[in-house]
Design goal:
Its cofactor is [2Fe-2S] cluster. With about 210 residues, the protein is of the alpha+beta class. It has helices at about 5, 20-25, 145-155, 165-180, 195, and strands at about 15-20, 30-35, 35-45, 45-50, 65-70, 75, 85, 90-95, 105-115, 120-125, 135-145. It has a domain at about 10-145: Rieske Iron-sulfur Protein, CATH 2.102.10.10.
């Protein structure tokens, strides 16, 4: 085995053990630190769901949020700012109105996929160390939408620094702005040029001389 092969970092596992199915069903919600992020696994109406524990908006603790149904979709409501996130896809929902209508009727609309959700699987281990009987366990694999999030960095163009302006260009730009700037208290779009920049000299008041 070469030195390069020994130095290579092992790839992360495809799935992570969360716990026994019966234990998660009993407590309803479980959080676990997986591969550098906090993951929330919850059990609701006979179905397991898994997503990032922190809300995409401001990092609110979703493990404390209520589960409600909006527009026919089960959502978890962030306890901080009441953001609605679908359990199945991590979709953000909000109420929108059409300003062109006389009567504003809010309708539920989608922001798109906002929250990172994870695939959860259930399988049976060969046996439990105590009872020596088969046990159902719940595992979580990588995010469903990890490719969608990673595409943000690959699709965006590389940032390029703006070219530095030469001193002569800065000086000329400053002269132009100084010449075209209106006087204090006047509006450049309404006052005629003759009023703003009078050509006649300002008369000087005569000097009073005291008679002796």
């Amino acid at each position: 085995m070469s030195a390069e092969e020994k130095n290579e970092d092992p790839s992360p596992p495809s799935s992570y053990f969360i716990g026994k199915r019966e234990d998660i069903v009993k407590v309803k919600r479980v959080t676990k630190f997986i591969n550098g992020r906090d993951v929330l696994v919850l059990y609701h109406n006979g179905t397991f769901h898994a997503m990032d524990m922190r809300c995409y908006h401001s990092g609110g603790p979703l493990q404390n949020g209520d589960i409600e149904e909006f527009s026919g979709k089960l959502c978890i409501v962030c306890p901080w700012h009441k953001y609605k996130i679908t359990l199945l896809e991590g979709e953000g929902l909000y109420q929108a109105v059409d300003p062109s209508q006389k009567v504003l009727k809010p309708k539920w609309a989608s922001k798109g996929i906002k929250q990172r959700v994870h695939l959860q699987t259930q399988n049976t281990t060969p046996y439990d160390s105590k009872s020596r009987l088969p046990v159902d366990v719940v595992s979580v694999s990588h995010s469903k939408h990890v490719s969608a999030f990673s595409n943000f960095s690959t699709n965006l163009p590389a940032s390029k620094p703006a070219p530095k302006a030469q001193p002569a260009a800065i000086l000329e730009e400053g002269i132009i702005k100084a010449e075209t700037r209106p006087r204090l208290g006047e509006r450049d779009d309404t006052l005629p040029p003759n009023y703003r920049f009078p050509k006649e000299p300002v008369p000087v008041a005569p000097v009073l001389v005291e008679n002796k």
